């Protein structure tokens, strides 16, 4: 099959029109008319991920995070990121990214996170005009839990050593939970206004955390890497599309490389 056939299905599932205006989504590198056989999904495109792809003879990488947030200003191959681009070109690998469009899509990133967080009656936190797509999700736990208990569940779910909790009372019961994958600090007022008891997001800023305490709100920050949940979900989707469309792919698999830059001691 051709890379463009897979790209068309991804864009049908997560339309590019849903992405933030400045988000560099879409084809990152390679020829969309290339014949592909081996597909790997990843959260990030980093040199170690590319090496895994090369070792596994991958010819199409799906990534959630765009590879070129900061475009190269030159092609000095002593720079690791530039060398990575060269390796991808040398091995004829197509790289495609769906980021904020996948976040906002129905049954996309934030729906996957909401399901993993055991939320029911889920709706977009900041809906688009259609009411079905939009930024973040908000839903209900079956039963109330204390902040401390739910934070422990979130920690174990995303397999981190610790989560950052911003709360005045760790024993407060919470039931209505908002979630926004990735960096969602700027959107905490919307979660508060939507009636959430707590908000799960990442990369929370120190001074914004003081504002959360002043608002007597609750935030649980399990690390941006929680979005790695997308790797297996995208594998499942692509395999479903392969069956529906009789695509000839040898394999579709999730990268096993951990790209979380943080170490918890």
UniProtKB/TrEMBL annotation:
Family matches, as Pfam families: DUF34_NIF3
Metal-binding found in the keyword field: yes
PANTHER family with a match to the protein in the record: GTP CYCLOHYDROLASE 1 TYPE 2 HOMOLOG, NGG1 INTERACTING FACTOR 3
GO-annotated molecular function: metal ion binding
InterPro entries to which the protein is assigned, alphabetical: DUF34/NIF3, DUF34/NIF3_sf
Annotated positions binding a divalent metal cation 1: 65, 103, 224, 227
UniProt protein name: GTP cyclohydrolase 1 type 2 homolog
Keyword rRNA-binding carried by entry: no
Stated family: Belongs to the GTP cyclohydrolase I type 2/NIF3 family.
Binding sites annotated in the UniProt record for a divalent metal cation 2: 64
Organism: Weissella jogaejeotgali
Recorded superkingdom: Bacteria
Subunit-structure text: Homohexamer.
Keywords, sorted A to Z: Metal-binding
A GO-annotated cellular component: cytoplasm
């Amino acid at each position: 099959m051709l890379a463009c056939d897979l790209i068309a299905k991804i864009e049908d599932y997560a339309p590019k029109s849903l992405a933030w205006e400045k988000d560099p989504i879409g084809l990152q590198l390679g020829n969309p008319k290339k014949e592909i056989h081996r597909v790997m999904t990843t959260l990030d495109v980093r040199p170690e991920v590319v090496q895994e792809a090369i070792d596994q003879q991958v010819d199409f990488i799906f990534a959630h995070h765009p590879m070129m947030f900061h475009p190269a200003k030159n092609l000095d191959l002593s720079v690791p990121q530039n060398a990575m681009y060269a390796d991808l070109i040398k091995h004829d690998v197509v790289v495609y990214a769906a980021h904020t469009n996948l976040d906002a899509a129905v049954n996309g990133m934030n729906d996957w996170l909401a399901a993993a967080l055991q939320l029911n009656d889920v709706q977009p936190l900041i809906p688009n005009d259609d009411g079905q797509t939009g930024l973040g999700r908000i839903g209900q736990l079956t039963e109330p839990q204390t902040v401390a208990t739910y934070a422990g569940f979130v920690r174990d779910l995303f397999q981190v050593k610790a989560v950052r909790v911003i709360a005045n009372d760790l024993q407060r019961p919470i039931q209505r939970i908002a979630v926004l994958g990735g960096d969602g600090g700027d959107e905490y007022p919307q979660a508060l206004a939507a009636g959430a008891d707590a908000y799960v997001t990442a990369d929370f800023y120190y001074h914004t955390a003081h504002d959360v305490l002043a608002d007597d709100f609750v935030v649980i920050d399990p690390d941006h890497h929680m979005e790695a949940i997308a790797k297996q979900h995208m594998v499942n989707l692509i395999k479903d599309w392969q069956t529906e469309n009789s695509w000839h792919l040898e394999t579709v698999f999730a990268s096993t490389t951990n790209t979380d830059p943080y170490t918890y001691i």
